[in-house]
Amino acid sequence: MNDITLDVIKIFSLGTISFLLAFSLIPALSHFLYKHKLWKKKPKEKALDGTKLEVSKESYKKDKKVPRIGGLIVWMIPLFLAFLFFLLAKIFDQDWIRKIDFLSRDQTWIPLFTLVSASLIGLIDDLLQILEKPANGFLNWFTSVLKPYMGEGLRLKHRIILVTLIGLMGGYWFYFKLDYHSILIPFFGDFYLGYLFIPFFIIVMLATYSGSVIDGLDGLSGGTFAAIFTAFGVIAFSQGQINLASFCLVITGSILAFLWFNIPPARFYMGETGILGLTTTVSVIAFLTQSVMVLPIIGILLLIESGSVILQVLSKKYRGVKLFEAAPIHHHFESLGWPHYKVTMRFWIIGAIAAIIGVTIRLLA
User: Fold this and answer.
1) What CA–CA distance (Å, rounded) separates 324 from 301?
2) Which of 258, 354, 262 is nearest to 304 (CA)?
3) How many helices, marked H, and strands, marked E, lie in the chain?
4) What is the per-residue pLDDT for 42?
């Protein structure tokens, strides 16, 4: 077999292993989450724009006892597989084992670090929302220090500050360690940014994170991010970044396993531990593949979701009227009477088509 065939086998094998491993572990994770009642005690009754959600009345009983940190599986599986195959490659001197190792300094160190660090921050936020009073045992120190935030989670400004710090570290690494000074504008070539590359990196990460509001319906975020990471996996493969492409497919595999259990009625929700890790990581991958200018296309659902909130808030503040029945926009369609599964599946279609268009533009650029 030639090298391209081996690379394809590597990528799809890792994606399949990720799916099967996550799928086999999720029942145990689900049992743990339900056993310890790790769900929000105050279900959301208002959209981000302050609109009261009529749909929340119908789904209150269902939502109030659904765990919120199912996103654990999305980032723990890639972390486990990255170090498992790295160690196996060091221990066993066999070509196929070395081949399947996808942990590399130039391709996967940064996105893996971003995924894990941001997901841990998200996990803290989730636990603060879930735990309403100081806990006993090993969580006692945690809940006593952060007691003012318990039952509510981190303030939006604090999450923005933390994402900014992650973006600052990422931008610093890209600029000083990887020598990234410009971005590629499809069909026009490189656009030199110089020191502005670092603040631009931060802005892109914050903008992508703003799309985290998409995690509001059963299956919506899972299907959206599965399409996004698959798209960037294709782009990375076309550039010969096989380890990065493998990393993308490993994440896709874990997301698909999560999605199996998140399709209505959801067994659990992704929570901040999943959504924060995925949004920041996809920003890093977009820069690694010189695809940041097609990120708004590939991730168009994130753009639409966050944009709908911004437009709604501005319209209410300066015009005194609402543009949508509720925002983010998926709640608008629910308020119009669309069943949640119709909203989800139609958004999936839009996301898949946008991902194909974005990949095509990047491959032609």
Assistant:
1) 16
2) 354
3) 15, 2
4) 66
